Amino acid sequence: MWILKGDSSLKIKVLPEDFVVREKLKIEIKPSGKYKIYLLTKRHWNTVDALRFISKENKIPLEKIGCAGRKDRHALTFQYISVPREYTINFNKENVKAQFIGYSDDFVSPLILEGNFFEITIRKLKNKDEKILQRLNEVQQFGFPNYFDDQRFGSIQNEDEFIGEKIVKKHYNGALKLYFTTIHPEDKKEEKERKKKISELWGDFEKILPLCKTKVEKNIIKTLLKGKSRHYLIRALNLISKEEMSIFLSAYQSYIWNRTLIAVLPYYVDLLKPVKGKIMDYLIYPILSTKSLNNLKNLQIPTVSSKIPYVSDIVNNAILEILNERGVKPSDFDTKKIRSWYFKSFLRPAIVFPEKLEVFDFEEDDFYEGYYKLRIKFYLPAGSFATMLMKSLTV
Questions:
Q1: Structure confidence by residue, pLDDT tens digits, 70-98
Q2: Residue of 7, 18, 49, 72 marked catalytic
């Protein structure tokens, strides 16, 4: 369940069917081709876990399975995955299944994801609230800040827990410790105790080795038993899969981008309201002047890397100030020693507009007796978060 912070009575994701996501890809499905394309339908599973189970059960290397985006577990999602044609996926569980739909000469990746269609049900409305209809109209007219939302930051609970930042600062030992000891919301009591024990023993790798559960964990600790120099720390980090490393480093990149937008918005907007997030407060505007709207809808902010493209003094100075505050500089983002991933800068729109917005009539809430629910449909371009649109409705 996900509660809209601006009004504790409003709820989304009460049921997976309350948050439906369907991908739109730029791909041609053919009778034959280099890759097999499957439609992955799931609820109660996140994408990464689903792909790991598919990989294991079908004996397909995880890196051979292409996907365009990671989808939340608290939703009903329809997304596409691909494998080279020599592989076949057979996977049909209660809450996740893969259905073969044809072939293509292209594999599924974020590069061919155009966007996502959403169908969201907002529950526990006290009455047929005109305010939420007004905010939907304003969001359609003025857009909303295009922040990366909380789910981008995984299990990070505060701003000092970024594995990506540890790597950028070359604090490789600290990065590895976070990898082993970060507690996830879904961790059971036994797993939490295991991670706390590893944290207490960190540095005494002989005692940690019997506590390791996965092959990767064991191989990392065996590497660290050979030596604690930077050489062995980097070798250990390179044992982490490309998929996991990309999550860690892109989370930090997304955090810096969000902080930049927070710093930049006051130059363009007079009225900004904070909406609480997991590790930061997001600044949201209710409406924009014509001048502000014209400025912001054309503003793009780069993600951080060792080579940051120039946008304007306001934007680029904001990035440098935030990096300085964090104790890093652009050149630190040259992470060539980490083989599995590197930072690449790309431009991301500062604000985004929902397309094809449909608002349906209020209905009696069939989950919360005595309340109403409201169903909406819309489309967002790739990389934009529907949950951020929902946060914007609360200001």
A1: 888 889 999 999 999 999 999 998 899 99
A2: 72
